[in-house]
Amino acid sequence: MKFIWKILLILIALVLLSYLFIKFFFTDSEVILKKPWFGSSISIDYVILEKAAYGETLEVYRGDRKVLWLQNQPGSLISTALLPAGTEPTRHPFINARALDPFEENNLQKLLVQSKSFEEFLSFLRNDGYLLKRVSQ
C-alpha cells in the first residue's frame, strides 16, 4: 500500500512540475485563462491585458459570444446596423473596431465614449465583465 502512495505522490509532483515549467517558459507577462462556459462545450483562451501594442488585434467576448473585434490604431467604428446609403463609418482617433453583437453594441459604445485612451477602454471592458482575446501582435 505504501508503494502505491509513493507512486501517486511522484505522479502528482511530476504534473505540478510540468505545469510550472510550461507556465514559466511558455507564457508572457499576461495572464491566460482557459475558461469553459456553463452550457457550452467550448473553452477559449482569454487574456487579461494591461496594455496592447500599436496595431494589435483583439477580440472581446461576453461569455462565449464574440461581441467586438478591435485594433489599437486609429480607424473606423463599424456598427452591426446598416449605414444609410452614401455615408461613411465614424472615424475614431485611437481605435479601429467592428461590433459583432447588436445586443452589446450600446454598452460597448458607452464604454468607448468614456475612454480617453485604448488602455482605458480595455480597463473599462474588463471592469464590465468582458473577456479579451489577443488575435495578433
Relevant terms:
single chain; about 140 residues; alpha+beta; six-stranded mixed sheet; two-stranded antiparallel ribbon; 8 strands; about 35% helix; about 30% strand; elongated
Q: What's the number of helices?
A: 3
Rg, Å, rounded: 20 Å
Strand content: 25-35%
Calculate the mean pLDDT score and round it.
79
Please tell me what the overall shape is: elongated
Q: Note the gap between the termini.
A: 53 Å
Helix content: 25-40%
| Integer count of domains | 1
Poorly predicted runs are: 26-44
Could you spell the SSE succession in H and E letters?
A: HEEEEEEEHHE
Provide the fold topology.
Blueprint: H1 2-26, E1 31-36, E2 43-48, E3 57-62, E4 65-71, E5 75-78, E6 90-92, E7 96-99, H2 105-114, H3 118-127, E8 131-136
Parallel strand pairs: 5-7
Antiparallel strand pairs: 1-2, 3-4, 3-8, 4-7, 5-6
Describe, in plain words, how this protein is organized in 3D.
By secondary structure, the chain is an alpha+beta fold. The chain contains three helices and eight strands; from the N terminus they run αβββββββααβ. It has helices at 2-26, 105-114, 118-127, and strands at 31-36, 43-48, 57-62, 65-71, 75-78, 90-92, 96-99, 131-136. It is elongated and about 80 Å long. The N and C termini lie far apart (53 Å).
